[in-house]
Amino acid sequence: MARSLWFVAGAGAGVYAMSRARRAAEALTADGLRDRLSGVGVGMRMFRDEVAAGQAEKETELRERMGLVPHRIPELTTRQTEGTDGHQ
């Protein structure tokens, strides 16, 4: 029983090592490196977009809190209050 258990454990470790070696070999080919670099590029672009969205959201929040004119949006420079007839 103990020998069969060790045989199965060894066979499983061998299969795992072969699959990891195959993945490593594929990752080091020209196509694999190109895929990894393009993945890094996509990740960097997504991170940049998230940071820009967060900055814009925080800037809007701060401008509203301080009562400043919205940045680069001329349509929103005037505020209409309730009870007015819409004339400026």
Describe the structure.
- The chain has two helices and no strands.
- The chain has 88 residues and is mainly alpha-helical.
- It is elongated and about 80 Å long.
Blueprint (SSEs and pairs):
Elements: H1 2-27, H2 30-66
In short:
This protein has helices spanning 2-27, 30-66. It has 88 residues and is mainly alpha-helical. 0% of the residues are buried.
Attribute tags:
elongated; 88 residues; single chain; 2 helices; mainly alpha
Summing up helix and strand content along with how strands pair, one would put the structural category as mainly alpha
User: Care to count the β-strands?
Assistant: 0
Uncertain ranges:
none
In which range does the helix fraction lie? over 70%
SSE ordering: HH
Number of helices: 2
Rg, nearest Å: 30 Å
* Proportion of strand residues: under 5%
Q: Would you tell me the overall average pLDDT?
A: 84
